[in-house]
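Record pair follows.
FIRST:
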Amino acid sequence: MGAVLLNSVHKSFGDVLAVNNLSVKVPTGSIYGFLGPNGAGKTTTLRMIMNIIRPDSGSIEIFGDSSAEQAKARIGYMPEERGLYRKMTVAKVLTYFGAIKGLAGDELSRRVPRWLQRIDLTNWANKKVEELSRGMHQKLQFAVTAINDPELLILDEPFAGLDPINTDLLKAIMLEMRNEGKTVILSTHVMHEAEKLCDFILLINKGQSILDDKLARIQSQRTSHVVSVELEGDTGFIGRLPTVTAVESDGHHFEITLADSADTQQLLQSLVERVRVQRFEVKVPSLHEIFVDLVGASNAEDS
Protein backbone atom coordinates (compact mmCIF):
# COMPACT_ATOMS: atom_id res chain seq x y z
CA MET A 1 0.00 0.00 0.00
CA GLY A 2 1.30 3.43 -0.94
CA ALA A 3 1.14 6.50 1.24
CA VAL A 4 -0.91 8.55 -1.24
CA LEU A 5 -2.81 7.51 -4.35
CA LEU A 6 -4.39 9.92 -6.83
CA ASN A 7 -6.52 8.44 -9.59
CA SER A 8 -7.60 10.58 -12.58
CA VAL A 9 -8.04 13.73 -10.51
CA HIS A 10 -9.53 16.83 -12.13
CA LYS A 11 -10.01 20.30 -10.67
CA SER A 12 -11.21 23.50 -12.32
CA PHE A 13 -11.80 26.99 -11.01
CA GLY A 14 -14.32 28.51 -13.37
CA ASP A 15 -12.82 28.32 -16.83
CA VAL A 16 -9.33 27.56 -15.51
CA LEU A 17 -8.35 23.90 -15.51
CA ALA A 18 -5.92 23.65 -12.57
CA VAL A 19 -5.37 19.87 -12.46
CA ASN A 20 -6.07 17.64 -15.45
CA ASN A 21 -6.43 13.86 -15.17
CA LEU A 22 -3.63 13.50 -12.65
CA SER A 23 -2.77 10.01 -11.40
CA VAL A 24 0.08 9.54 -8.92
CA LYS A 25 1.16 6.79 -6.54
CA VAL A 26 3.47 7.93 -3.73
CA PRO A 27 5.29 5.00 -2.09
CA THR A 28 5.80 4.93 1.65
CA GLY A 29 9.32 5.72 2.83
CA SER A 30 10.15 8.05 -0.06
CA ILE A 31 10.68 11.72 -0.79
CA TYR A 32 8.39 12.62 -3.66
CA GLY A 33 8.87 15.93 -5.43
CA PHE A 34 5.97 17.76 -7.09
CA LEU A 35 7.85 20.04 -9.47
CA GLY A 36 6.85 22.62 -12.00
CA PRO A 37 6.56 26.36 -12.63
CA ASN A 38 4.35 28.63 -10.56
CA GLY A 39 0.73 28.00 -11.49
CA ALA A 40 1.36 24.43 -12.64
CA GLY A 41 -1.18 22.93 -10.20
CA LYS A 42 1.15 21.81 -7.41
CA THR A 43 -0.51 23.67 -4.53
CA THR A 44 -4.00 22.76 -5.77
CA THR A 45 -3.00 19.10 -5.78
CA LEU A 46 -1.63 19.26 -2.24
CA ARG A 47 -4.77 21.00 -1.01
CA MET A 48 -6.89 18.26 -2.55
CA ILE A 49 -4.78 15.60 -0.85
CA MET A 50 -5.43 17.43 2.43
CA ASN A 51 -9.17 17.69 1.66
CA ILE A 52 -9.02 21.48 1.89
CA ILE A 53 -10.61 21.56 -1.53
CA ARG A 54 -12.41 18.74 -3.29
CA PRO A 55 -11.60 17.40 -6.75
CA ASP A 56 -14.28 17.75 -9.40
CA SER A 57 -13.72 14.12 -10.32
CA GLY A 58 -11.31 11.29 -9.60
CA SER A 59 -10.32 9.82 -6.25
CA ILE A 60 -7.63 10.33 -3.60
CA GLU A 61 -6.53 7.83 -0.96
CA ILE A 62 -4.18 8.35 1.99
CA PHE A 63 -2.83 5.20 3.61
CA GLY A 64 -5.62 3.32 1.85
CA ASP A 65 -8.35 5.57 3.23
CA SER A 66 -10.49 7.79 1.01
CA SER A 67 -10.68 10.57 3.62
CA ALA A 68 -7.81 12.77 4.76
CA GLU A 69 -9.78 13.40 7.95
CA GLN A 70 -9.40 9.74 8.94
CA ALA A 71 -5.63 9.96 8.49
CA LYS A 72 -5.27 13.49 9.90
CA ALA A 73 -3.25 12.49 12.96
CA ARG A 74 -0.73 10.74 10.69
CA ILE A 75 -0.11 13.80 8.47
CA GLY A 76 1.94 16.97 8.91
CA TYR A 77 0.96 19.72 6.46
CA MET A 78 3.01 22.86 5.83
CA PRO A 79 1.03 25.20 3.56
CA GLU A 80 2.55 27.78 1.27
CA GLU A 81 0.84 30.53 3.28
CA ARG A 82 2.52 30.38 6.67
CA GLY A 83 0.34 30.87 9.74
CA LEU A 84 2.01 31.28 13.13
CA TYR A 85 0.90 33.53 15.97
CA ARG A 86 3.27 36.47 15.74
CA LYS A 87 2.85 37.69 19.35
CA MET A 88 3.64 34.29 20.89
CA THR A 89 7.16 33.22 21.72
CA VAL A 90 8.88 30.58 19.63
CA ALA A 91 8.74 27.95 22.40
CA LYS A 92 5.07 28.66 23.15
CA VAL A 93 4.15 28.33 19.47
CA LEU A 94 5.74 24.89 19.34
CA THR A 95 4.07 23.91 22.61
CA TYR A 96 0.67 25.18 21.47
CA PHE A 97 0.66 23.36 18.14
CA GLY A 98 2.09 20.22 19.72
CA ALA A 99 -0.79 20.21 22.22
CA ILE A 100 -3.33 20.69 19.40
CA LYS A 101 -1.80 17.64 17.72
CA GLY A 102 -2.39 15.56 20.84
CA LEU A 103 0.97 15.60 22.60
CA ALA A 104 0.80 15.43 26.39
CA GLY A 105 2.72 17.76 28.70
CA ASP A 106 5.59 15.39 29.50
CA GLU A 107 6.11 14.59 25.84
CA LEU A 108 5.95 18.27 24.88
CA SER A 109 8.58 19.14 27.49
CA ARG A 110 10.94 16.74 25.72
CA ARG A 111 10.07 17.50 22.10
CA VAL A 112 9.99 21.30 22.17
CA PRO A 113 13.63 21.82 23.27
CA ARG A 114 14.73 18.97 21.02
CA TRP A 115 13.12 20.60 17.98
CA LEU A 116 14.45 24.04 18.90
CA GLN A 117 17.94 22.56 18.93
CA ARG A 118 17.30 20.65 15.72
CA ILE A 119 16.36 23.81 13.80
CA ASP A 120 18.99 25.95 15.54
CA LEU A 121 16.52 28.24 17.33
CA THR A 122 17.33 27.40 20.98
CA ASN A 123 18.62 30.92 21.61
CA TRP A 124 15.38 32.32 20.19
CA ALA A 125 13.02 30.25 22.35
CA ASN A 126 11.73 33.25 24.32
CA LYS A 127 11.62 35.66 21.39
CA LYS A 128 8.31 36.53 19.76
CA VAL A 129 7.63 35.08 16.34
CA GLU A 130 7.41 38.60 14.88
CA GLU A 131 11.09 39.10 15.77
CA LEU A 132 12.24 36.20 13.60
CA SER A 133 13.75 36.57 10.16
CA ARG A 134 11.91 35.01 7.25
CA GLY A 135 14.24 32.01 7.27
CA MET A 136 13.82 31.46 11.01
CA HIS A 137 10.07 31.68 10.60
CA GLN A 138 10.27 29.06 7.88
CA LYS A 139 12.25 26.67 10.09
CA LEU A 140 9.80 27.16 12.95
CA GLN A 141 6.90 26.40 10.62
CA PHE A 142 8.64 23.16 9.65
CA ALA A 143 9.09 22.20 13.30
CA VAL A 144 5.40 22.92 13.98
CA THR A 145 4.53 20.62 11.07
CA ALA A 146 6.73 17.76 12.27
CA ILE A 147 6.58 18.00 16.07
CA ASN A 148 4.03 15.18 16.43
CA ASP A 149 6.25 12.82 14.36
CA PRO A 150 3.78 12.29 11.49
CA GLU A 151 4.12 9.37 9.08
CA LEU A 152 3.47 11.66 6.10
CA LEU A 153 4.75 15.21 5.65
CA ILE A 154 3.24 17.40 2.92
CA LEU A 155 5.37 20.51 2.39
CA ASP A 156 4.43 23.32 0.01
CA GLU A 157 7.54 25.29 -1.05
CA PRO A 158 9.51 24.39 2.11
CA PHE A 159 12.72 26.13 0.97
CA ALA A 160 11.20 29.56 0.31
CA GLY A 161 13.17 32.24 2.15
CA LEU A 162 15.97 29.92 3.31
CA ASP A 163 19.66 30.54 2.80
CA PRO A 164 21.83 27.60 1.60
CA ILE A 165 22.86 26.58 5.13
CA ASN A 166 19.30 26.34 6.42
CA THR A 167 18.13 24.73 3.19
CA ASP A 168 20.69 21.99 3.81
CA LEU A 169 19.49 21.74 7.42
CA LEU A 170 15.89 21.05 6.41
CA LYS A 171 16.99 18.65 3.67
CA ALA A 172 19.03 16.68 6.20
CA ILE A 173 15.99 16.40 8.49
CA MET A 174 13.81 15.24 5.59
CA LEU A 175 16.35 12.59 4.62
CA GLU A 176 16.50 11.40 8.22
CA MET A 177 12.72 11.09 8.27
CA ARG A 178 12.77 9.19 4.99
CA ASN A 179 15.35 6.81 6.42
CA GLU A 180 13.02 6.20 9.37
CA GLY A 181 10.33 5.03 6.93
CA LYS A 182 8.32 8.23 6.77
CA THR A 183 7.03 9.73 3.54
CA VAL A 184 7.67 13.30 2.41
CA ILE A 185 5.80 15.05 -0.40
CA LEU A 186 7.18 18.45 -1.28
CA SER A 187 6.29 20.94 -3.96
CA THR A 188 8.83 23.33 -5.40
CA HIS A 189 9.69 25.18 -8.57
CA VAL A 190 13.38 25.16 -7.56
CA MET A 191 14.43 22.08 -9.44
CA HIS A 192 18.09 21.94 -8.47
CA GLU A 193 17.08 21.55 -4.82
CA ALA A 194 14.67 18.70 -5.57
CA GLU A 195 17.32 17.05 -7.71
CA LYS A 196 19.57 16.66 -4.66
CA LEU A 197 16.80 15.38 -2.41
CA CYS A 198 13.97 13.50 -4.09
CA ASP A 199 13.69 9.79 -4.80
CA PHE A 200 10.78 10.32 -7.17
CA ILE A 201 9.91 13.27 -9.37
CA LEU A 202 6.53 14.37 -10.71
CA LEU A 203 6.92 17.15 -13.25
CA ILE A 204 3.67 19.08 -13.71
CA ASN A 205 2.88 21.69 -16.32
CA LYS A 206 -0.53 23.32 -16.79
CA GLY A 207 -2.10 20.78 -14.46
CA GLN A 208 -0.82 17.73 -16.33
CA SER A 209 1.84 15.16 -15.53
CA ILE A 210 4.82 15.50 -17.85
CA LEU A 211 7.09 13.00 -16.10
CA ASP A 212 6.53 10.72 -13.12
CA ASP A 213 9.32 8.30 -12.19
CA LYS A 214 12.40 7.69 -10.11
CA LEU A 215 14.86 10.53 -10.54
CA ALA A 216 17.71 8.27 -11.64
CA ARG A 217 15.52 6.61 -14.28
CA ILE A 218 14.31 9.96 -15.62
CA GLN A 219 17.88 11.14 -16.08
CA SER A 220 19.16 7.86 -17.52
CA GLN A 221 16.46 7.85 -20.19
CA ARG A 222 17.29 11.34 -21.41
CA THR A 223 20.07 11.72 -23.96
CA SER A 224 22.69 14.30 -23.09
CA HIS A 225 24.46 16.31 -25.76
CA VAL A 226 27.00 17.94 -23.46
CA VAL A 227 30.39 16.42 -22.68
CA SER A 228 32.73 17.71 -19.98
CA VAL A 229 36.42 17.09 -20.69
CA GLU A 230 39.88 18.05 -19.46
CA LEU A 231 42.48 18.14 -22.20
CA GLU A 232 46.17 18.89 -22.76
CA GLY A 233 47.51 19.97 -26.12
CA ASP A 234 46.42 22.15 -29.01
CA THR A 235 42.62 22.24 -28.73
CA GLY A 236 41.83 24.81 -31.40
CA PHE A 237 40.37 22.17 -33.71
CA ILE A 238 37.49 21.19 -31.39
CA GLY A 239 35.09 23.89 -32.49
CA ARG A 240 35.65 22.88 -36.13
CA LEU A 241 34.60 19.26 -35.64
CA PRO A 242 31.42 18.62 -37.70
CA THR A 243 29.41 17.22 -34.75
CA VAL A 244 30.28 20.06 -32.33
CA THR A 245 27.80 22.95 -32.04
CA ALA A 246 29.36 24.90 -29.13
CA VAL A 247 32.49 24.93 -26.96
CA GLU A 248 33.03 26.65 -23.61
CA SER A 249 36.48 26.62 -22.03
CA ASP A 250 38.32 27.96 -18.99
CA GLY A 251 41.77 26.64 -19.79
CA HIS A 252 42.12 22.86 -19.72
CA HIS A 253 38.43 22.27 -18.91
CA PHE A 254 35.91 22.21 -21.76
CA GLU A 255 32.13 21.90 -22.03
CA ILE A 256 31.40 20.59 -25.52
CA THR A 257 27.86 20.62 -26.90
CA LEU A 258 27.16 18.13 -29.68
CA ALA A 259 24.56 17.98 -32.40
CA ASP A 260 21.49 15.86 -31.59
CA SER A 261 22.62 13.01 -33.87
CA ALA A 262 26.24 13.00 -32.69
CA ASP A 263 27.96 9.98 -31.13
CA THR A 264 29.94 10.79 -27.97
CA GLN A 265 32.32 7.89 -28.63
CA GLN A 266 33.14 9.39 -32.01
CA LEU A 267 34.02 12.64 -30.26
CA LEU A 268 36.25 10.77 -27.81
CA GLN A 269 38.08 9.08 -30.68
CA SER A 270 38.63 12.43 -32.42
CA LEU A 271 40.07 13.92 -29.23
CA VAL A 272 42.36 10.98 -28.40
CA GLU A 273 43.90 11.18 -31.86
CA ARG A 274 45.02 14.79 -31.36
CA VAL A 275 45.28 15.69 -27.64
CA ARG A 276 45.81 14.07 -24.24
CA VAL A 277 42.41 13.34 -22.63
CA GLN A 278 42.60 13.53 -18.82
CA ARG A 279 38.84 13.37 -18.21
CA PHE A 280 35.84 12.63 -20.43
CA GLU A 281 32.33 12.72 -18.95
CA VAL A 282 28.95 12.74 -20.65
CA LYS A 283 26.96 15.09 -18.43
CA VAL A 284 23.72 13.86 -16.89
CA PRO A 285 20.98 16.32 -17.87
CA SER A 286 19.63 18.34 -14.98
CA LEU A 287 15.93 18.41 -14.15
CA HIS A 288 15.79 22.01 -15.27
CA GLU A 289 17.29 21.09 -18.64
CA ILE A 290 14.87 18.18 -19.00
CA PHE A 291 11.90 20.37 -18.13
CA VAL A 292 12.93 23.13 -20.54
CA ASP A 293 13.37 20.50 -23.24
CA LEU A 294 9.89 19.12 -22.61
CA VAL A 295 7.77 22.22 -22.10
CA GLY A 296 9.86 25.12 -23.38
CA ALA A 297 11.90 27.79 -21.68
CA SER A 298 8.92 30.16 -21.40
CA ASN A 299 7.22 27.79 -18.93
CA ALA A 300 10.24 26.78 -16.88
CA GLU A 301 11.20 28.70 -13.76
CA ASP A 302 14.19 28.08 -11.52
CA SER A 303 16.14 30.06 -8.98
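SECOND:
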Amino acid sequence: MILTVENLKKSFDGFVAVNGVSFSIEKGELCSIIGPNGAGKTTVFNLITGYLPLDEGRVIFNGVDITHMRAYQICRLGMRRSFQRTNIFPRLTVFENVQAALLAYRGKSFNFFTPVETLFREETEAILGRVGLQDHSNAMSGSLSYGFQKQLELGIALASEPDVLLLDEPTAGMSTEETSATIELIGRIAHEKGLTLLFTEHDMEVVFSISERILVLHQGQMITEGSPDEVRTNPDVQKVYLGEAR
Protein backbone atom coordinates (compact mmCIF):
# COMPACT_ATOMS: atom_id res chain seq x y z
CA MET A 1 0.00 0.00 0.00
CA ILE A 2 1.31 3.43 -0.90
CA LEU A 3 -0.93 5.24 1.62
CA THR A 4 -2.38 3.89 4.86
CA VAL A 5 -4.59 5.96 7.15
CA GLU A 6 -5.29 4.56 10.61
CA ASN A 7 -8.00 5.77 13.00
CA LEU A 8 -7.84 9.49 12.18
CA LYS A 9 -9.55 11.69 14.75
CA LYS A 10 -9.92 15.46 14.86
CA SER A 11 -12.13 17.77 16.93
CA PHE A 12 -12.64 21.54 16.87
CA ASP A 13 -13.85 23.11 20.13
CA GLY A 14 -15.65 19.92 21.09
CA PHE A 15 -17.10 19.26 17.63
CA VAL A 16 -15.88 15.91 16.27
CA ALA A 17 -15.06 16.53 12.61
CA VAL A 18 -13.30 13.23 11.89
CA ASN A 19 -13.91 10.16 14.03
CA GLY A 20 -11.88 7.00 13.50
CA VAL A 21 -11.36 7.13 9.73
CA SER A 22 -9.17 4.32 8.33
CA PHE A 23 -8.39 3.23 4.79
CA SER A 24 -5.54 2.15 2.51
CA ILE A 25 -4.76 2.94 -1.12
CA GLU A 26 -2.68 0.87 -3.51
CA LYS A 27 -0.06 2.39 -5.79
CA GLY A 28 -1.65 3.62 -9.03
CA GLU A 29 -5.22 3.47 -7.70
CA LEU A 30 -7.80 6.18 -8.47
CA CYS A 31 -9.93 6.72 -5.37
CA SER A 32 -12.50 9.30 -4.38
CA ILE A 33 -13.97 10.40 -1.06
CA ILE A 34 -17.61 11.45 -1.09
CA GLY A 35 -20.11 12.56 1.52
CA PRO A 36 -22.59 15.34 2.30
CA ASN A 37 -21.40 18.84 3.17
CA GLY A 38 -19.70 18.73 6.55
CA ALA A 39 -18.88 15.03 6.31
CA GLY A 40 -15.19 15.72 6.99
CA LYS A 41 -13.68 15.24 3.52
CA THR A 42 -11.47 18.32 3.43
CA THR A 43 -10.46 17.82 7.06
CA VAL A 44 -9.27 14.31 6.21
CA PHE A 45 -7.19 15.79 3.38
CA ASN A 46 -5.72 18.38 5.74
CA LEU A 47 -4.81 15.70 8.28
CA ILE A 48 -3.17 13.42 5.71
CA THR A 49 -1.10 16.22 4.15
CA GLY A 50 0.06 17.86 7.39
CA TYR A 51 -2.00 21.05 7.16
CA LEU A 52 -3.74 20.12 10.42
CA PRO A 53 -2.35 18.17 13.40
CA LEU A 54 -4.05 14.92 14.34
CA ASP A 55 -5.71 14.39 17.70
CA GLU A 56 -5.27 10.64 17.24
CA GLY A 57 -4.30 8.23 14.51
CA ARG A 58 -1.45 7.54 12.13
CA VAL A 59 -0.61 8.15 8.45
CA ILE A 60 1.90 5.96 6.59
CA PHE A 61 3.13 7.03 3.16
CA ASN A 62 5.46 4.81 1.13
CA GLY A 63 6.40 2.98 4.32
CA VAL A 64 7.24 6.20 6.19
CA ASP A 65 5.27 7.40 9.21
CA ILE A 66 4.37 11.00 8.28
CA THR A 67 1.90 11.55 11.13
CA HIS A 68 3.76 14.43 12.75
CA MET A 69 5.50 15.84 9.68
CA ARG A 70 4.85 19.32 8.36
CA ALA A 71 3.16 19.88 5.01
CA TYR A 72 6.36 20.87 3.18
CA GLN A 73 8.15 17.74 4.45
CA ILE A 74 5.32 15.51 3.22
CA CYS A 75 5.39 17.28 -0.12
CA ARG A 76 9.11 16.55 -0.49
CA LEU A 77 8.40 12.85 0.04
CA GLY A 78 6.14 12.83 -3.02
CA MET A 79 2.63 13.78 -1.90
CA ARG A 80 0.95 16.86 -3.37
CA ARG A 81 -2.51 18.32 -3.04
CA SER A 82 -4.73 20.97 -4.58
CA PHE A 83 -7.30 23.12 -2.80
CA GLN A 84 -10.92 24.03 -3.51
CA ARG A 85 -9.74 27.52 -4.42
CA THR A 86 -7.02 27.80 -7.02
CA ASN A 87 -3.50 28.22 -5.67
CA ILE A 88 -1.53 29.94 -8.43
CA PHE A 89 0.49 33.16 -8.89
CA PRO A 90 -1.98 35.33 -10.86
CA ARG A 91 0.60 37.98 -11.79
CA LEU A 92 2.98 35.47 -13.35
CA THR A 93 2.50 33.95 -16.78
CA VAL A 94 1.37 30.37 -17.16
CA PHE A 95 4.92 29.41 -18.15
CA GLU A 96 6.44 31.19 -15.14
CA ASN A 97 4.08 29.46 -12.71
CA VAL A 98 5.17 26.00 -13.79
CA GLN A 99 8.81 27.05 -14.17
CA ALA A 100 8.81 28.40 -10.60
CA ALA A 101 7.40 25.10 -9.33
CA LEU A 102 10.19 23.20 -11.10
CA LEU A 103 12.81 25.54 -9.65
CA ALA A 104 11.40 25.08 -6.14
CA TYR A 105 11.21 21.30 -6.44
CA ARG A 106 14.68 20.81 -7.92
CA GLY A 107 16.38 23.25 -5.57
CA LYS A 108 17.58 25.70 -8.19
CA SER A 109 17.72 29.47 -7.87
CA PHE A 110 18.14 32.34 -10.25
CA ASN A 111 21.60 33.81 -10.79
CA PHE A 112 23.19 36.51 -12.90
CA PHE A 113 24.90 34.04 -15.24
CA THR A 114 21.93 31.93 -16.34
CA PRO A 115 19.10 33.62 -18.30
CA VAL A 116 15.85 33.00 -16.46
CA GLU A 117 13.98 32.01 -19.59
CA THR A 118 16.34 29.07 -20.22
CA LEU A 119 15.85 27.37 -16.84
CA PHE A 120 13.89 24.12 -17.22
CA ARG A 121 12.37 25.41 -20.44
CA GLU A 122 11.88 22.01 -22.06
CA GLU A 123 10.47 20.50 -18.85
CA THR A 124 8.07 23.42 -18.42
CA GLU A 125 6.85 23.18 -22.00
CA ALA A 126 6.35 19.42 -21.62
CA ILE A 127 4.16 19.91 -18.53
CA LEU A 128 2.13 22.65 -20.22
CA GLY A 129 1.55 20.31 -23.14
CA ARG A 130 0.47 17.53 -20.80
CA VAL A 131 -2.17 19.73 -19.12
CA GLY A 132 -3.33 21.34 -22.37
CA LEU A 133 -1.98 24.83 -21.77
CA GLN A 134 0.77 25.01 -24.38
CA ASP A 135 -1.18 27.66 -26.32
CA HIS A 136 -1.52 29.82 -23.20
CA SER A 137 2.13 29.77 -22.14
CA ASN A 138 2.56 33.57 -22.20
CA ALA A 139 -0.86 34.46 -20.80
CA MET A 140 -1.10 36.07 -17.36
CA SER A 141 -2.41 33.36 -15.07
CA GLY A 142 -4.94 35.64 -13.42
CA SER A 143 -6.62 36.26 -16.78
CA LEU A 144 -7.31 32.58 -17.46
CA SER A 145 -10.77 31.06 -17.17
CA TYR A 146 -11.41 29.17 -13.97
CA GLY A 147 -11.11 25.83 -15.78
CA PHE A 148 -7.71 26.75 -17.22
CA GLN A 149 -6.56 27.96 -13.79
CA LYS A 150 -7.37 24.55 -12.35
CA GLN A 151 -5.45 22.92 -15.20
CA LEU A 152 -2.50 25.19 -14.38
CA GLU A 153 -2.72 24.18 -10.74
CA LEU A 154 -2.52 20.56 -11.87
CA GLY A 155 0.57 21.41 -13.93
CA ILE A 156 2.19 23.04 -10.90
CA ALA A 157 1.51 19.90 -8.88
CA LEU A 158 3.00 17.69 -11.61
CA ALA A 159 6.19 19.74 -11.55
CA SER A 160 7.10 18.11 -8.23
CA GLU A 161 6.74 14.63 -9.76
CA PRO A 162 4.36 13.35 -7.04
CA ASP A 163 3.66 9.71 -6.28
CA VAL A 164 0.30 10.58 -4.70
CA LEU A 165 -1.90 13.49 -5.74
CA LEU A 166 -4.83 14.68 -3.62
CA LEU A 167 -7.37 16.88 -5.40
CA ASP A 168 -9.97 18.72 -3.33
CA GLU A 169 -13.10 19.37 -5.43
CA PRO A 170 -11.18 19.63 -8.75
CA THR A 171 -14.29 20.60 -10.77
CA ALA A 172 -16.01 22.92 -8.28
CA GLY A 173 -17.30 26.05 -10.02
CA MET A 174 -16.72 24.71 -13.51
CA SER A 175 -19.11 24.65 -16.42
CA THR A 176 -20.30 21.31 -17.78
CA GLU A 177 -17.79 21.54 -20.64
CA GLU A 178 -14.92 22.45 -18.30
CA THR A 179 -15.84 19.62 -15.95
CA SER A 180 -15.83 17.05 -18.73
CA ALA A 181 -12.48 18.27 -20.09
CA THR A 182 -10.88 18.39 -16.65
CA ILE A 183 -11.94 14.89 -15.66
CA GLU A 184 -10.72 13.48 -18.96
CA LEU A 185 -7.42 15.28 -18.41
CA ILE A 186 -7.00 14.07 -14.82
CA GLY A 187 -7.77 10.48 -15.75
CA ARG A 188 -5.39 10.51 -18.71
CA ILE A 189 -2.51 12.03 -16.76
CA ALA A 190 -3.00 9.67 -13.82
CA HIS A 191 -2.75 6.64 -16.10
CA GLU A 192 0.14 8.01 -18.17
CA LYS A 193 2.21 8.97 -15.13
CA GLY A 194 1.18 6.03 -12.93
CA LEU A 195 -0.10 8.47 -10.30
CA THR A 196 -2.01 7.40 -7.24
CA LEU A 197 -5.00 9.73 -7.08
CA LEU A 198 -7.30 10.56 -4.17
CA PHE A 199 -9.92 13.23 -4.70
CA THR A 200 -13.04 14.69 -3.14
CA GLU A 201 -15.90 15.65 -5.42
CA HIS A 202 -19.52 16.79 -5.15
CA ASP A 203 -20.48 15.85 -8.71
CA MET A 204 -21.59 12.21 -8.66
CA GLU A 205 -21.30 11.85 -12.42
CA VAL A 206 -17.63 12.77 -12.10
CA VAL A 207 -17.11 10.40 -9.19
CA PHE A 208 -18.58 7.37 -10.91
CA SER A 209 -16.90 8.10 -14.24
CA ILE A 210 -13.31 8.12 -12.98
CA SER A 211 -13.13 6.32 -9.61
CA GLU A 212 -11.88 2.79 -9.26
CA ARG A 213 -12.84 2.80 -5.59
CA ILE A 214 -15.03 5.15 -3.58
CA LEU A 215 -14.82 5.93 0.15
CA VAL A 216 -17.95 7.35 1.76
CA LEU A 217 -17.92 9.64 4.78
CA HIS A 218 -20.88 10.69 6.90
CA GLN A 219 -20.63 12.87 10.01
CA GLY A 220 -16.88 12.29 10.20
CA GLN A 221 -17.04 8.52 9.95
CA MET A 222 -16.40 6.08 7.12
CA ILE A 223 -19.65 4.25 6.45
CA THR A 224 -18.57 2.14 3.48
CA GLU A 225 -16.10 1.76 0.63
CA GLY A 226 -16.12 -0.19 -2.60
CA SER A 227 -16.36 -0.10 -6.37
CA PRO A 228 -18.63 2.48 -8.02
CA ASP A 229 -21.32 -0.18 -8.55
CA GLU A 230 -21.10 -1.33 -4.93
CA VAL A 231 -21.36 2.21 -3.60
CA ARG A 232 -24.13 3.19 -6.01
CA THR A 233 -26.35 0.35 -4.78
CA ASN A 234 -25.48 0.60 -1.08
CA PRO A 235 -28.66 1.52 0.84
CA ASP A 236 -26.76 3.49 3.50
CA VAL A 237 -25.11 5.62 0.82
CA GLN A 238 -28.40 6.22 -0.94
CA LYS A 239 -29.94 7.29 2.35
CA VAL A 240 -27.26 9.69 3.63
CA TYR A 241 -25.82 11.08 0.42
CA LEU A 242 -27.07 10.06 -2.98
CA GLY A 243 -30.67 10.33 -1.88
CA GLU A 244 -30.11 13.96 -0.90
CA ALA A 245 -29.29 14.84 -4.48
CA ARG A 246 -32.57 13.52 -5.82
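COMMENT: Strands lie at 3-12, 15-25, 30-34, 56-61, 64-65, 79-81, 164-168, 196-200, 213-218, 221-226.
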